[in-house]
Design a protein that fits this description.
There is one protein chain. The chain has 17 helices and 15 strands. It has about 500 residues and is of the alpha/beta class. It has two domains: about 170 residues, Rossmann fold (3-Layer(aba) Sandwich); about 280 residues, tm_1862 like domain (pyruvate-formate lyase- activating enzyme, Alpha-Beta Horseshoe), CATH 3.80.30. β11, α9 and β12 form a beta-alpha-beta unit.
């Protein structure tokens, strides 16, 4: 029986399973790592095809390469698969090299950087030890790739959405969105996943990620989603989602969920149907969930249904307090719509996690300060403030290039250390200084601290987790003279 090892390599915490953001969890303010569902899906599919599978998330377990080496020598995989990100790709390729120093095996990588990539751009990456790189939705191709590499069945050139090398150099196949029927996928192999690693950030209780929908028709200039998962929204059936929730609850004792969708609230009718399905099910009153949404997709009816069904947090990408910036980034909303959405969410008594960005190439310091004022107006329960990251092949990448704010290289960067020099008007050092000072100001307001203290009194489990996030906040933001990537001050 052929053996496949699926892993996240040791290193800093990144959201490796979510191609559109690839968030740097380690250096964020309030974000938490989600379950390794991409590995779980791959494991379930490969086991169905008769492969023996080993799965481990070394980064979230805080393990070292010595642990990987021990597992390699014990399991002796024929194929090693890992998920990569824009920021970690160079370290991950070094990891692949170290793996090949321990055993002889095939190697497959998955990551958004490979989606319909410019092969000349990929030439800066040493992919000589990578047999195949997946840029599309791995669930629909991983089985065929394993059969090809390990059993000699079929050819890589016939598999869509991948990059591979042959005697003529790098090649790529056709990149299109994958199957419409998401219900056809098996549930992730949670029996192989260390479910205790992935927790609800306020209580520390295990939290499962359930992929419920894919695709987004929006035109945000910084987002990879429309390219990778398509503009058409593909939703799983309510019955399928409920069945996976029941498995998590009954088999693994998981009561908290992150419903992963490119935007959960895009299809109001489907989202309401899911909430009503939960309310009619035996899980009603026993589970809680969190989702992401858009300010321009919310209705009072939807929010009321979400609250009744158990929504404990709603994350919204408000992005900016400048109407000019919202228009130029093609967000499709406005400052007023943001405020109205926040008011609706608070009326529904759902805690709010606000995401914002600064550092777009046209922004002045006045635009940035308008965003800070907007955050204080919205007053979310938690806030994440990122510097705009121009991922390669997005409209933002091209705009930064035109504005002369794009730094050298497309790979090796993230929202914390993006590949820009700042905006056309505000240098990166000043951007980071403004960001750090504002986050400290936001999270140390007496009213905010009293609100979190009240939560801890209601649920003492929150105390330890808020302490951890508080220490992270101070560690990353108590810097009056932030340092750029590479040590330039």
């Amino acid at each position: 029986m052929n053996r496949v090892m699926l892993l996240y390599p040791p290193g800093k915490l990144y959201q490796r399973g979510e191609d559109r953001a690839q968030c740097n969890i380690e250096d964020s303010t309030a974000s938490s790592v989600h379950a390794c569902n991409d590995l779980g899906y791959a494991a379930a599919i490969l086991r169905k095809k008769g492969y023996e599978v080993f799965l481990r998330d070394y980064q979230t377990e805080r393990k070292a390469f010595a642990d990987v080496e021990r597992d390699l020598l014990t399991f002796r995989p024929d194929l090693v698969f890992l998920s990569t990100t824009n920021a970690t790709i160079f370290d991950d390729l070094s990891f692949v090299h170290r793996v090949h120093g321990v055993i002889t095996c095939k190697t497959v990588l998955k990551g958004a950087i490979f989606f319909d990539a410019d092969l000349e751009k990929l030439a800066v990456l040493d992919l000589g030890e990578v047999d195949c790189a997946i840029g599309g939705e791995l669930e629909f191709v991983i089985g065929d790739i394993a059969d090809c590499l390990l059993k000699g069945q079929g050819t890589l050139s016939a598999i869509p959405g991948i990059v591979f090398g042959d005697e003529d150099g790098l090649r790529k196949t056709a990149f299109t969105c994958s199957a419409e029927n998401l219900d056809s996928l098996p549930f992730p192999a949670r029996d192989l996943m260390n479910n205790k690693l992935y927790v609800r950030p306020d209580t520390g209780a295990p939290m499962a990620t359930i992929s419920v929908a894919r695709g987004c028709p929006s035109n945000c200039i910084y987002c990879l989603t429309p390219r990778i998962t398509g503009r058409d929204v593909r939703c799983r059936s309510v019955e399928s989602v409920l069945a996976e929730m029941r498995e998590c609850y009954e088999t693994y004792g998981i009561r908290d969920f992150f419903f992963k969708a490119d935007t959960f609230t895009l299809n109001n009718a489907w989202a309401i149907a899911l909430c009503e399905g939960i309310l009619r099910s035996p899980l009603s009153g026993k589970i809680a969930f969190t989702v992401n949404g858009r300010a321009d997709t919310l209705t009072p009816e939807l929010l009321q249904k979400m609250k009744a069904a158990g929504c404990f947090m709603l994350a919204i990408g408000f992005e900016s307090g400048s109407d000019k910036s919202l228009e130029l980034m093609k967000k499709g909303t406005s400052v007023q719509k943001n405020l109205e959405a926040a008011a609706m969410i608070k009326q529904a008594k759902i805690p709010l996690f606000g995401f914002f960005m600064l550092g777009f190439p046209w922004e002045t310091e006045a635009d940035i300060r308008a965003t800070f004022d907007h955050i204080l107006q919205i007053d979310p329960d938690f806030v994440e403030l990122h510097v705009a990251m121009p991922f390669y092949d997005t409209a933002l990448y091209d705009l930064c290039k035109e504005a002369g704010t794009l730094a050298d290289g497309a790979f090796g960067f993230d929202y914390v250390t993006p590949n820009t020099t700042g905006t056309a008007h505000v240098p990166m050092e000043r951007l980071l200084e403004l960001k750090h000072r504002f986050l400290l100001r936001f999270y140390t307001r007496p009213r905010y601290l009293f609100a979190r203290a009240a939560e801890c009194l209601r649920d003492p489990r929150a105390l330890g987790h808020y302490f951890v996030y508080g220490m992270r906040l101070l560690r990353h933001n108590l810097r009056l003279n932030p340092t750029k990537k590479g040590g330039e001050s």
